[in-house]
């Protein structure tokens, strides 16, 4: 019998799940309900489903009728792709109503909400999956394989730098993410991916975090200090925005317009705010140190205004060193001209020849080796497709344990929550003070 799914939160990310259910796994899965605070956005998806998959509209529910949707549609699983701050409410309610849950990262935005999720999970005994697609990207899997095989011995230290560029990185400063209460800041919203990778790569859990972070580039005050004098609230309808390379044009007659511009009358969700506006409460510059249970130490940096996007990680072990360098986007153009070039990829902001991916293994007393791997097709380095296979069909016999559970969701956000706490206190923070992580990890 087909498994029944509903989705709550019909923004952009929900498409990965709807496509898997309506197309790739349609013989074993069924999408029976859609729920959001914005009905215009749901209608856009229903029109899109009809065009792409030739199906009749799926029953739409306002968020106020979430319980009614569960009662009428009797789903096996609820998929949550809402704004981060609201994840815990739907996770807990869905479990209380007898459903298993699949939630997008981050599991939630702070330790208090995490405690609530764990209490409800224990009370109801329901299953909770957090979708960490980066683990499935072939290059990240390769790193796991090398470390798991002991190629560099025991890992003593890790240095991890993630760069976000002036298009993708800037996007967090245009919409709901810019309010720390909505997203937990980039330490939770974005770095949950990176902290999860490290937990998985090291097969360990974090115990202590010290961090410093500030808003140094985006925001009205920073722009004023650099001598800017022209400001606007949002791109749509602004003359000043026409000269701003950070502006986002939503009048594309496509997804941006349909999902956001044409839907904003319902909920006031403004998707194209100026990144140099007021009221940005998240950081764009973050440096963090993390200690793990087996004593490995990580230094980590995230900067959200770089000319290229990607990451560099190096592992120093008892038998050698492993380095990975990935350029996901080589450069961002300030002009519209490049976007008219047929070779130009709007999503990655670049031509394919600007991509670069490199893994180097160097054992002590030996020359460096370039490591190769099979690249997959699809979003996030092939990660999204493999992730959806595990989510819908269940993980097979995988020695690398790539499928993430709820404890992985907790472990990764807790590094970000502790970093946020450390930014405030100016002191290191012990993770167990926020949530009894070591107890759960030792029981696992
Ligand atoms: N794994 C990844 O690589 C990845 C990528 C993008 C987004 N995400 C995650 O997916 C989620 C959605 O992100 P997005 O980019 O699609 O955002 P979005 O803004 O496009 O969509 C969010 C949707 O949630 C709805 N919503 C907001 N509050 C709600 C509430 N109280 N009840 C019901 N619906 C509500 C909005 O109306 C909107 O339709 C986020 O949690 C984000 O972290 C993950």
The general outline is globular
Rounded radius of gyration (Å): 22 Å
The small-molecule ligands in this entry are: nicotinamide-adenine-dinucleotide
Total count of strands: 15
**What is the fold-level CATH name, i.e. the topology of the largest domain?**
Dihydrodipicolinate Reductase, domain 2
How far apart, in Å, are the first and last alpha carbons? 32 Å
Just name the CATH architecture of the largest domain. Answer: 2-Layer Sandwich
User: What structural class should be given to the helix and strand makeup?
Assistant: alpha/beta
* Spans where pLDDT lies below 50 across 5 or more residues: 336-349
Mean pLDDT: 93
3D architecture notes:
The protein is an alpha/beta fold. It has three domains: 3-131, 3-Layer(aba) Sandwich (Rossmann fold); 134-217 and 281-443, Dihydrodipicolinate Reductase, domain 2, CATH 3.30.360; 220-267, no CATH class. The chain is 33% helix and 23% strand. It has 16 helices and 15 strands. It has helices spanning 14-24, 39-53, 66-73, 87-96, 111-124, 138-148, 168-171, 180-183, 185-189, 191-202, 220-225, 255-260, 264-267, 383-393, 406-425, 437-443; strands at 3-8, 29-36, 60-62, 77-80, 100-104, 128-131, 155-165, 206-214, 285-292, 297-306, 309-317, 320-329, 356-363, 369-371, 429-430. The chain has a nine-stranded mixed β-sheet with strand order 14-13-12-11-7-10-9-8-15. It has a six-stranded parallel β-sheet with strand order 3-2-1-4-5-6, sandwiched between helices. Helix 1 crosses helix 14, helix 4 packs parallel to helix 5 and helix 6 packs parallel to helix 10. The longest helix has 20 residues, at 406-425. It is globular and about 65 Å long. The protein starts with a strand and ends with a helix. Nicotinamide-adenine-dinucleotide is lined by residues 8-13, 36-38, 41, 63, 81-84, 86, 104-105, 133, 189. Nicotinamide-adenine-dinucleotide (NAD) binds at residues 8-13, 36-38, 41, 63, 81-84, 86, 104-105, 133, 189.
């Amino acid at each position: 019998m087909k498994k029944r799914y509903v989705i709550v939160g019909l923004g952009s990310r929900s498409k990965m799940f709807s496509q898997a259910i309506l197309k790739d796994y349609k013989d074993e899965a069924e999408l029976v309900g859609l729920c959001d605070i914005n009905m215009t956005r749901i209608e856009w998806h229903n029109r899109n489903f009809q065009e792409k998959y030739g199906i009749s509209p799926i029953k739409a529910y306002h968020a106020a009728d979430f319980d009614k949707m569960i009662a009428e549609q009797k789903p096996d699983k609820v998929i949550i792709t809402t704004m981060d701050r609201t994840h815990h409410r739907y996770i807990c309610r869905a479990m209380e109503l007898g459903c298993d849950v699949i939630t997008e990262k981050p599991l939630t935005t702070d330790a208090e909400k995490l405690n609530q999720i764990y209490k409800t999970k224990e009370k109801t005994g329901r299953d909770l999956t957090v979708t960490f697609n980066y683990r499935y990207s072939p290059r990240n899997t390769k790193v796991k394989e090398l470390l798991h095989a002991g190629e560099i011995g025991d890992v003593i230290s890790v240095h991890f730098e993630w760069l976000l560029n002036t298009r993708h990185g800037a996007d967090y400063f245009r919409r709901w993410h810019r309010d720390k209460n909505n997203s937990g800041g980039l330490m939770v919203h974005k770095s949950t991916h990176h902290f999860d990778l490290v937990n998985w790569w090291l097969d360990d859990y974090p115990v202590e975090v010290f961090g410093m972070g500030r808003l140094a580039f985006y925001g009205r005050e920073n722009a004023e200090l650099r001598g800017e004098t022209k400001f606007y609230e949002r791109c749509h309808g602004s003359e000043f925005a026409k000269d701003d390379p950070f502006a986002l044009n939503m009048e594309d007659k496509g997804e941006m317009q349909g999902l956001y511009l044409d839907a904003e009358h319902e909920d006031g969700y403004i998707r194209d705010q100026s990144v140099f506006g007021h009221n940005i409460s998240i950081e764009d510059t973050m440096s963090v140190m993390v200690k793990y249970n087996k004593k490995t130490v990580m230094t980590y940096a995230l900067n959200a205004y770089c000319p290229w996007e990607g990451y560099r990680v190096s592992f120093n072990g008892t038998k050698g060193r492993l380095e990975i360098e990935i350029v996901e986007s080589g450069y961002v153009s300030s002009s519209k001209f490049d976007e008219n070039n047929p070779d130009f990829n709007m999503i990655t902001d670049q031509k394919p020849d600007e991509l670069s991916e490199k893994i180097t293994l160097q054992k002590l007393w030996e020359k460096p080796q370039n490591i190769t791997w099979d690249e997959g097709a699809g979003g996030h380095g092939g990660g999204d497709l493999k992730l959806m296979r595990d989510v819908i069909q269940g993980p097979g016999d995988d020695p690398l344990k790539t499928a993430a559970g709820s404890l992985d969701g907790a472990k990764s956000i807790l590094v970000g929550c502790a970093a946020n706490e450390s930014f405030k206190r100016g002191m290191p923070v012990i993770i167990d003070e926020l949530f009894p992580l070591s107890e759960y990890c030792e029981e696992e």
